[in-house]
Amino acid sequence: MNFNVASPETNEELFEVIAANQGRNFRFGAGCTDLLIELKKQPEKDLTVINLGYLNDPQFNSIENNDGSVRIGALVTANRITSDLTIQERLPVLYEAANQLASGQIRQVATIGGNLCTASPAGDMACALVALKAECEILSANGKVRVVPIEDFFTGVRKTDLKENEILRSVQIPVNNSGEKVHSGFIKVGVRRSMECSVVSLAYHIQITADDIITLAGIAIGSVAPTIKFASSACEYLTGKRFSEIGSSESEEFATKILEYASPISDIRASAWYREEVLFNISKSIFE
Amino acid sequence: MPTDTHKITFTINGRKMERTISPSLLLIDLIREELSLKGTKPGCLEGECGACTVLINGDAISSCLYLAVNVNGKEITTIEGLSTDDRNAPFDPVQEAMIQHGGVQCGYCTPGMVMSIKAFQEHCEANRFVPGREEIKKAIEGNLCRCTGYTKIIDAVESLFEGE
Amino acid sequence: MQKELKVIGKPMPKLDAGIKVSGKAVYGQDVVLPDMLYGAILRTEYPVAELVSIDTSKAEQLAGVVSIITADDVDVNNISYRRDHPALKKGRVNCIRDEIAAVAAETPAIAREALKLIEVKYNVQEGVFDPFEALKDDAPQINEFSSHEKNKNISHPFHYEHGDLQQQKDKSAHIVTSRYFLPRMTHACLAPCAITADYSNIDNRLTLYSVTQVPFLYQRDMAHVLKMEPSRIRVIQTVIGGGFGSKLDMYPYEPICALLAMKSGRPVQITFDREEEFIASPTRQKMVIDLTSGVDEKGKFTFRVAKIIMDNGAYTSWGATTPFVMMQTFSSMYQMPACVFDADAVYTNNVYAGSFRGYGNPQATFAVERNIDLLAEKLGMDKAEIRLLNANFRGEFTGQELEFNTCGHKDALEMVIDGVGKTRKENDKDQKRYKKGIGFASMLHVGGGAKIYPSDGCGTILKMDDYGYLTIITGSSEIGQGSETVLGMMAAEELGIGIEKIRVINTDTDIKPWDVGVHASRTSFVAGNSLLGAIKELKTKLSPKAAEMLKTDEDDLEYDGGTVKSIKTGESIKIDKVARQIHFKGPNDLLTVSHYYEPGSKFADKNFKGNISGAYAFAAQAIEVEVDTYTGNVRVLNIHMAQDVGKVLNPLGLGGQIEGGVVMGMGYALTEELKVDNGYILNPSFHEYKLPTACDIPEIHFYPIETIDEAGPYGAKGVGEAPLIPTAAAIANAVSNAIGVEIDSLPITPEKVLQALSNKS
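ok -> structure tokens follow
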């Protein structure tokens, strides 16, 4: 493993480094926890790692609470997400996903941007963000910004919509401040109770009015398809229903709709059969 | 491709240092090979076992998945930095608790375990928080131990907060 | 009457805990010698192939490469007790671990780079990966050195029997037959393997900084391979980062490292990375057990017939002898009128199995205890009651001629039955999704060594200096289990000196006297008895002088508080003063003694009968689980573990052994399996090979039972292996109890559970 490292500290330096590396082999490194494992296994030739560890830009580094949204910089670590009170209260699905990611040592350095850009179908925070219908703010080396819905950000296994001269700057999550209740959580299924890569994951974020009506539902599933999937028909199914009136037949219908988005494979961790069975079961469990 | 070298300055166990390193050098190699501090243990080199845990500015991280260039301007604490010079009290309270509660068997996971516990203890104290056993388990989830079954280690951590 | 104990039985922190918590302990990978090179091993790309050619010329050209060896460059004997394993392979490879060449270079990176430049041409062949296929007549001979006793592909066959099988079958009201599948589990020591070899051609001596747990057998094996005299090999054990049986055999990397050092004339170090550790370390035996058991109408067991096929892998390690231990469980755990046992270690092209804490016993216990639950169900009898009814007892002389002079089996069962009754009550709500269950299992294991090698003894040398400090030089080894602390405690107890004045030297074969090694839970028992014998001899020097100085009889002396005291007068004298008097005044002697202890056990006869251990350990577990019927995850809630330990020596160390063993057993039960497909290892990482984490552990309730076995030091028996042995069996029984399905294999993965539930409905 042998590579060069460039450590831009300002946006200008960042743009320069990106521009200078166009047409060459470069990778971004934030927490580097996935990147270093990958490079140890498959060293790349003539590689430059653009190290974001010293990038000093609040738009990359901070969590901002705006009216109606939370904006999380791509370089915010999983640990900062779990200790943020707004996220704990308003976005439990994201809190739980961040808290179940790998180990404390990894959460200390692993970033939300890294978790998204790795584009693993098993990405924990990524799955939560899909359920939350987050938007990705993408910055290009010429200074232009574009915003894409998170579902369009993932284009395949370990593939994203990012162009060669682009970098993910932040994610923006809509937050309903009307005082509605949220039923929100992240279910990660693996063999152990910790240190797992999910075999199946389910992120759900449901908003309920004071008089029990579901106004918004976001459901995303991980590790059961080439990318994380947003289960829109399951969400539509819930919207408008009374939350307390979802009984076992409704929850099974809901789970069946989720299953339509799954196309799991069998691998060393589990069979496709198991993944589908479990996805069905945990889907209905969120109403139990 | 010839790689550049990088000059970094950092503090390790209270000592200020300047080093010229290769950019892809891992922190664990800086610590073990370049600085010959062998207390930090290589266990898996992929962030799965926690044996190489050290503190950066007080936070526990896996030194096998951390670029040495990223310690520039920071403070590293390794297991060697926890012991004191006091002949009558050579250990940090975390180390002492691990000894007294039988949290050490083969000892290979111990330095990393101790560093994780140290970071957790300071975090709890800063937040005036007394953890229960489940929280303690979560705090050491990233440190595998093959000998002890963790119970005595959890006892040791619990003892740090007794009387609080 | 035994005198009151002041040190033994009280919690004592480990003597080596201080250096370990400070990061100052030197493990194999921390050794640095002047001018040291780094070695790396080229392993085969294919499990089975003819080696057409090996071209090292490009690698030799790489700057920094010092020496390269292949089988053609070395004159060595095979390793393994069956002598069927060449350290470097010639002509063909037989499994994915096989070593083809090795490099010594200036840095680890250069050594690894050089491996990539070695060109090997393979003629890839079909392998045999199923032991049942290997037993067929038309199977190829897998290991060319196989000795053909029974079948060309059987490395080691075992047959044992006692009792009148037909008579017992006739007596049986119910008979059950099941086939059980036990997986490969690997030790996954936190410290990967490491060795440093230093050869001096000045005196033709080889020094090995090694992680072996059996240094004297290792010295002899190494000498055999290298064709050297054993005494020219000095084995220095570094601090060992986990053993669990994995370091009982010598493996190819060790003589390879020595050969590199001999060839290059410089010290060479080889360390494994985690992937190599998973690929190149041994495993617990994968096996298939067919077990038929019977019970009479009152619930008394009648017979067991066990037929076991073990996947030996391509070469033989000590692990092939696990039937020695397994047959005891079939023949003697619970009262057993008749037993027929057959086990064959069968060669395949899989990775070879080795010895692992419990030594076959977890597999045997799994089969026996699952069958017991099935018998109880047939009888409609309570699963605790059937076990109590058949429990072993003190004074029992088993069909295999084991003599249970002490036996806490029934007490252990009663303790855990009572314990689980209490915790079960607390969690008694069964829910739709989560189902709770309880499982029981017992275990029988050697607890006073195991007479397999020509001697099962241990030597001790003691040296008390002029200042009253004691050095214990013991043949035994510390691998983290805490035996050196127990030895220190015994000396402190007997000589009345503080533990801080005691030093244990146990790492250097040039210094320490012979010991067979760490295995069979023997160290506290055998090394402890050896130490007590040595202390007795030391006192034959100390006591006469002290009596003379105190003007009293030797019988009147008490060693206490750093002094020797007259019980009658209360007058005392410091022990160091006695030592100086002996040295300088008369008889002008030094306080050095040596003692060799050989346990009173016997060798088994050719039919495997005989009392091979100085004492036997018994344990019982009751485990409470909760099964998530949505995901198949099994959560262990409570483990109740009662064990006949003879006598508690160090409660702190004992508790650690118990908890560690139980959690290791939980890994075997639920999460751990080294997956091998067509000879390739699929999960060589901690990411995919799943050790239990802190978040997975249950509450562990431990009840030590003291039966005071007169053969053991202070009545103690061996403890190290026992806690892991019944755990998987008890968990399987608990899962079966929770969801009403048959569990016939390990690990009990969530997928297996869900599959079983789905098949049931």
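The CA atoms of residues 7 and 104 of chain B lie 38 Å apart.
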